[in-house]
Amino acid sequence: MKVRNWMVGIIALMAIIGLGSYIFNNPTGLFRQIFIMGLIACAIYFIYRVWAGRKPEQRENRSFAKAAKLSKKRNRVSHQASSQIRKKPLRKRSAAHLTVIDGKKSKKKDRAIF
What we know:
Largest sheet: none
Helix content: 55-70%
Structural class: mainly alpha
Number of helices: 3
Mean pLDDT: 79
Order of helices and strands: HHH
Oligomer: single chain
Shape: elongated
Strand content: under 5%
Low-confidence stretches: none
């Protein structure tokens, strides 16, 4: 673990020294290179956003939200219309008459006892 920390520290120190020497020797080249890297990063980000934005799940979610809104609107309209219409009282259904069929109770099955 200590060896890894030393290696990371040495690499970071070398990067700082290299960046410092690059600033003193060619500052405009450094800023130009940083600007080009930024442009490339922005282009990759926007391409990713466009490509990731075309997921079918998002279209389905939009379709679902639109259908839910339409359904709510229909329910509101039908609810208002049904409240104006007088409802007939439901008549009670009579209970179904069921009969019990008696089987052969006197005959017992021969079962093996385990």
